[in-house]
Automatic annotation (TrEMBL), chain B:
Keywords: Signal, Transport. It holds the Pfam family SBP_bac_5. This is ABC transporter substrate-binding protein. CDD domains: PBP2_NikA_DppA_OppA_like_19. It comes from Streptomyces diacarni. Residues 79-439 form the Solute-binding protein family domain. Residues 1-26 form the signal peptide. Belongs to the bacterial solute-binding protein 5 family. One of its GO terms (cellular component) is ATP-binding cassette (ABC) transporter complex. GO terms for biological process: peptide transport. GO terms for molecular function: peptide transmembrane transporter activity. The keyword Metal-binding does not apply.
Amino acid sequence: MTETDIPAAARPPRQRPARRALWGPAARLVGRRLLAAVPVLAAVTFGVFAVAAASPFDPVQQYAGSAGLNASQETLDQLRANLNVDGPFPQRWWNWLTSAVTGDFGDSTSLRQPVAQVITERLGWSVLLCAVGFAFAVLVGTVLGLAAARRRGGLLDRTVTSLSYTLEAAPPFWLGLLGIWLFALQFDVLPAGGLTDSGSDVVTASALLRHLALPALVLGISQVPWFLLYVRQGVGDALAEDAVRGARARGLSERTVLLGHALRSGLLPVLTLIGSRIPELITGALLVETVFSWPGIASATVEAATATDFPLLAALTTLATVAVLAGNLLSDLGYGLADPRVAMEEM
Amino acid sequence: MTARTVRTATAMATAAVVLASAAACSAPDDGGGPGGGTDALTVGVAQEPETLSPLLGYGKEGNSKIFDGLLTHDAQMHLKPALATHLPKVSKDGRTYTYDLRKGVTFSDGKPFTAKDVVYTYETILDKKTNNASKSELDAVDSVHAEGEHTVVFRLKYPYAAFAERTVLPIASKAVASKTNVNTGSYNTEPVGTGPYVLTSWRKGEKLSFKANPHYWGGKPKIKRFTVAVIEDDDVRATRLRSGDLDGAILPPNLAKTYEKDEDKRTFSAKTADYRAVTLPSDNPVTGDKAIRRALDLAVDRKAMVKSILNGAGKPAYGPLPTDSPWFAKGTERPHDLKAAEKILNDAGWKPGKDGVRRKDGERAAFTLWYFSGDKLRQDHALAYASDAKKAGIDVQVQAGSREVIRPKVKHDAMLLGNGFPADPDFDLYPTLHSSQAGNGWNNLAYYHDKTVDEQLDAARRSRDPETRKTAYTKVQRALAKNPGYTFLTTIDHVYVIDDKWRGLTTQVEPHDHGIGAGPWWNVQDWQPEK
């Protein structure tokens, strides 16, 4: 692609020649991060097993459930031996790690399934929920942030800004309960939870949309404030830049100035922050999935934690760690791509 | 390659992935959905089974929907044949049980049911490598073997009168289950059985869906689709019942009351063997004292507990057997009599101290009572018990804790216990009262030891003559009344609310753990629509 393909109006403010070597440094950055991820993952899983060892809960009692209260001591001892929950935790961590490397994540004690199966069954639903919620947050955040930045101090600006600060302080589970109360109980327009209606088995597209709406909305709304405030700040600052003033001086339409110049340059730092929001998104999903009985990874995490299902918890913690590391990597890559002054070699 | 191209490509790729995953998640419409029909039933329960494999304990008390046992219970809890053609032939020494099996029965995958499946099911449960927490219920079994395709013979280690009651246990398919890992394999979530229903889907934490088995040997059920929604929160369950999302649900008595005036709904108060009691450990000088035990037994106001804690849905309990059980020893009911309790304590030398708490030989009449944290029902019972005990001058400190916290303490401290197996008196009395079971797992937590009780419990399990057993159990209950090592408080009714659309609904006498197999839908396969 050359510069001549681009209509003059949409051309970004000229800074320096845009042509840079990208693939080489980016690949080296990814490689460095992959190497760095190994000790991080090892440390995190070691931490999970250490916490498990220190936990006052007994996995055998948790496994046996109500039947455990009538079981003989012999049965309980046999269960303890079968579940392999005794022994020093560094030893168990090492056993887990070595089999995890070969792809065997062990068996979930609470769900009576292999951990890999639990994850494959549930990952898709979580990704769908997070993707829709995040897309909603980005869309609403951009539109409202842009509108607020355009007339700073105006009525809309003051409304959305104060609303954002309020929402930022509201925990997602509270928003979730509020959403259920409002849409499911008061108005009776959206279902309160699950993937489908209780009487129906098959996941139909329309039922899924209706059931997805409320959890995705709540997750999205809980993510809107930070995005909105960043866009508002970024675009507001960009509006005061020389490039925008220049564009206005050239007599370009307000729409072009706002979308083509101010938004573009104001949005760049925000885009790179998206990756770093992943931990927030995961904790948000944790709460939202629990409130709405969404059959995803996050609700399995809650179940694994409350049932002291350490094999499942260890695998899910690893997964969350990978997501966070990948998010950081993505934002760094994005930063490198977006801002020519940043050298990937230095990250 | 420029930064811009990379950005555009990334955006396109992201959009494509999001769209693709949305499309992948949609599935074809089968036109299903909750309707007002009588051929589909959706119920709400509070507890989800941990597994659907009988090999790990699912459905061990019958009514498993997906499976059949050799025997089953009717509405009056009498045994009747299911996969067996008639009740077992028992040898004279009471140690050999022979079952003839029904011919022509197939599993839901079309494979025939034979004696091999029965042998496989029992042997797998008893296998040390199988993580079945209830396997001690089959302790009596020495061996099980097939004689030909359609006969199974159980050999017991000792004569055990209640054994036939254990054979309501569901039979798994050897052909399917033996190919999987018993503890974590697919048979836990994709069971194959001979029962009236076939599992169509199980989304954990949300619901289980069943469809009628068209080839069921007992005839195709009229209710074609059966859905069990798992809703832990009582209020949410009540709301979803009101909104029509559910046809029936288990509810606490106070929430069930709000449906009493609803003409389209019926309320069932199921009788149970589900009791609550306080263990009084023998090794504690206070709770081990017979005078204290008897005084507490008289000082507790059971009727007030039924009224205030259970909203009337229950009855006073004087032993593990409910007062309306045919095995209950009439005349062992104890009145609420604070004066008599005080007299017993005074006569035994427990004199009131300055702080209102009695003392004897420097020992303060005080002990700790534990309950499982989060269990509101047990908490309410514990607090009521402490308040009644205080009136008699006994100081009971109520504390909450997890199983891990409580278990090491039960030898010395009291605990609020809940249990109940209605099928045979042996199932409740033996583990709770026999001295051989003292402190074995969570059994006999009072470390109760009484010679008469031990002898009579042994006699009652050996004999298969109902009269002999009845006499022995009456002696056990009388001995327990004289030396009440547990204070039995209440037997709890389980309350269900359901749409009034079907005929002939009943409830069985229910056990302490009441999952899918309990409630009016215990025999959903036999339901007929209201004409």
